[in-house]
């Protein structure tokens, strides 16, 4: 049987666009059918926006690549109709072990807080993730949604104009030209779109190489995250072992910057390293080996006129902390509702500048966390190594040192503090739901809160009055009325009220808080709606 | 929250200093460096207060006055 990543999933088919005498104009074109591009396309298609995805390939990603998907990503995937599939297939984990030199220094349990529909993290090969998203595209097509994936359609040139973009696309049957009102470039770290537009990719804060191997074995290692600092089998570097579905284990071995990549990738060099790590008696099969090179950097601006960059094309971080694909999904989550409002003429084009501002803020947060992890994992000076080793030695004996151990700070949803779309906080409520925050989930009887907040502006009232619907300059807002009387687990109270006794939240279509107050006041909330749409 | 203390605060200062030297006695340079690093971290955690820690880092750098 062929592996999933060896089977064409969206093989080339001739499009009527290729026979059109004049270039066909679409609403949105997405370049790249990776997790981020597929999420963007599904999000737009669900809102009825005509979208075409162009990918130079016709298969899901080769090898596991991104493997660790966060709760926020699963919540976004729920909104896109694929969350359940990911969780059902993924490996759940909440325990981890930290090793230093030849010994275990401590273990930990993430002890997930109760009252969320989705787990804190799952491990899942990127090819499974993409496969489920492609399935979702097929479902939408069957329902008549205006979405297409065109395999083996390679964008060769991008022409940018005042109100559209024009693409020259190469196919197995020759080139054709198409146009779009808007282009979303999700074409990865090496983004040809970025290069074609001649845009620089700023900052090179850190560079390193990792040998990444997917290994199939029937080992009885538990589904835990094991991280090694300076182990005997990879001196001076780090190593990570993580379980994926189908008895596939993911091994990341840090190699340093100045290495011979081709040499390191050869099985005769890889296998002895893995044997030293796993033990001589463990039988394993190599499924995939790759050398992954990363840099911490981002584009200065994620928007250039009618072209929007999302995911790795816009920003790159180290693999520590699962901040790559997870931040890419937060990009499209942030972008697509704004693009829909702009396409419908319900918000000014400048609303898209808030996509840039908010997601640059998110990227900088990820780069900061990622750089700090890297500084801990790979000390840059003798003294930083001495301090790092002191932390690890102390962590074996004392709890206090464990929060200082930094093998990657796992991705958390970004809070857009200071965003121009936020209204001033007018509730003495919990910090976790201040304006800019992604709404935390909470149980509502047998259901959960987040699915009720998806894809539209919502006025969430907790023991407060407000109109059931509200319209402000073309923006429709519907009320979701809740009460702590029904809040059996007190999660709603804990996450949304704190010390307050009532609250009214204005929540954006991407489930981020735009404004909050203890009671409804029409004028305030009308302003908040306008502000959240970039009109003030 | 209290301010960083930069006036004499250790009773029997000579005893403490002797104890500090004794802890390092007979250690190789690398082991002494490691001990100092662990000591800094233990003391920093005890203090906890980030303002005091920031002030202490600044005081130790001898760049202020």
What does this 3D model show about the protein?
The complex is a heterodimer of chains A (536) and B (65). Chain A has 536 residues and is α+β, with helices and mostly antiparallel strands. Chain A is 27% helix and 27% strand. Chain A is built from twelve helices and 27 strands. Chain A has helices at 35-46, 71-79, 83-89, 126-142, 192-196, 261-265, 267-278, 325-343, 351-377, 382-397, 491-497, 522-532; strands spanning 24-31, 51-54, 68-70, 91-92, 95-100, 103-109, 121-123, 147-150, 154-160, 165-170, 176-185, 207-216, 225-229, 238-244, 248-256, 285-295, 297-298, 303-304, 307-309, 315-316, 443-444, 447-448, 457-462, 469-472, 475-482, 503-507, 513-517. In chain A, the strands form six sheets. In chain A, strands 1, 2, 8, 9, 10, 11, 18 and 19 form an eight-stranded mixed sheet that branches. Chain A has a seven-stranded mixed sheet with strand order 6-5-13-14-15-12-16, sandwiched between helices. Chain A has a five-stranded mixed sheet with strand order 24-25-23-26-27, with helices on one face. The longest helix of chain A has 27 residues, at 351-377. Chain B has 65 residues and is mainly alpha-helical. Chain B has a domain at 28-65. Helices cover 66% and strands 0% of the residues of chain B. Chain B has helices at residues 13-24, 29-47, 50-61. Chain B is globular, with a radius of gyration of 14 Å. The relative contact order of chain B is 0.14. The mean pLDDT of chain B is 95. The interface between A and B is small, with 11 and 8 residues.
């Amino acid at each position: 049987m062929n592996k999933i990543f060896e089977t064409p999933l969206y093989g080339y088919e001739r499009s009527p666009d290729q026979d059109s005498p004049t270039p066909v104009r679409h609403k949105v074109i997405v370049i790249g059918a990776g997790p981020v591009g597929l999420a963007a396309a599904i999000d737009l298609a669900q809102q009825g926006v005509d979208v075409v995805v162009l990918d130079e390939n016709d298969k899901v990603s080769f090898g596991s690549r991104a493997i660790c998907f966060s709760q926020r990503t699963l919540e976004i995937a729920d909104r896109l109709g694929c969350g359940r599939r990911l969780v059902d297939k993924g490996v759940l984990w909440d325990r981890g072990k930290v090793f230093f030199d030849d010994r275990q220094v401590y273990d930990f349990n993430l002890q997930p807080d109760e009252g969320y529909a989705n787990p804190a993290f799952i491990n899942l090969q990127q090819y499974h993730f993409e496969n489920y998203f492609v399935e979702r595209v097929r479902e939408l097509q069957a329902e008549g949604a205006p979405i297409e994936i065109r395999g083996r359609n390679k964008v060769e040139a991008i022409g940018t104009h005042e109100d559209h973009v024009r693409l020259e696309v190469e196919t197995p049957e020759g080139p054709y030209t198409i146009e779009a009102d808007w282009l979303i470039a999700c074409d990865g770290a090496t983004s040809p779109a970025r290069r074609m537009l001649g845009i620089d990719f700023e900052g090179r804060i850190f560079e390193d190489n990792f040998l990444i191997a997917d290994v199939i074995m029937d080992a009885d290692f538990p589904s835990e995250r094991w991280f090694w600092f300076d182990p005997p089998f990879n001196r001076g570097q780090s190593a990570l072992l993580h379980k994926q579905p189908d008895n596939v284990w993911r091994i990341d071995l840090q190699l340093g910057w100045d290495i011979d990549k081709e040499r390191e990738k050869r099985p005769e060099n890889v296998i002895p390293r893995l044997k030293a790590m796993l033990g001589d008696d463990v039988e394993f099969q190599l499924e995939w080996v790759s050398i992954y090179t990363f840099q911490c950097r981002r584009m200065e601006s994620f928007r250039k006129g009618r072209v929007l960059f999302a995911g790795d094309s816009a920003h790159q971080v180290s693999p520590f902390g699962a901040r790559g694909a997870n931040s890419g999904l937060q990009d499209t989550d942030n972008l697509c509702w704004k693009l829909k409002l702009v396409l419908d003429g319900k918000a000014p084009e400048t609303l898209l500048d808030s996509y840039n501002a908010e997601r640059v803020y998110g990227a900088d947060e990820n780069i900061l966390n990622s750089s700090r992890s890297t500084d801990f994992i790979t000390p840059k000076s003798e003294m930083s190594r001495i301090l790092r080793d002191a932390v690890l030695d102390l962590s074996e004996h004392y709890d206090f040192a464990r929060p200082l151990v930094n093998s990657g700070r796992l991705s958390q949803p970004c809070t857009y503090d200071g965003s121009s779309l936020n209204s001033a906080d007018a509730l003495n409520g919990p910090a976790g739901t201040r304006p800019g925050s992604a709404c935390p989930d909470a149980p509502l009887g047998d259901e959960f809160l987040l699915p009720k907040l998806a894809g539209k502006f919502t006025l969430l009232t907790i023991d407060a009055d407000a109109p059931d619907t509200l319209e402000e300059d073309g923006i429709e807002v519907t009320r979701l009325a809740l009460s702590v009387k029904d809040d059996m687990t007190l999660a709603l109270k804990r996450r949304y009220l704190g010390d307050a006794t009532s609250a009214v939240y204005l929540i954006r279509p991407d489930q981020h808080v735009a404004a909050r107050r203890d009671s409804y006041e029409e004028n305030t909330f009308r302003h908040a709606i306008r502000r959240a749409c970039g009109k003030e | 929250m209290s301010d960083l203390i930069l006036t004499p605060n250790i009773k029997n200062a000579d005893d403490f200093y002797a104890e500090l030297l004794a802890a390092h006695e007979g250690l190789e340079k690398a082991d002494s460096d490691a001990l100092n690093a662990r000591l800094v971290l233990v003391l920093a955690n005890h203090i906890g207060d980030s303002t005091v820690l920031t002030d202490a880092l600044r005081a130790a750098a001898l760049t202020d006055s």
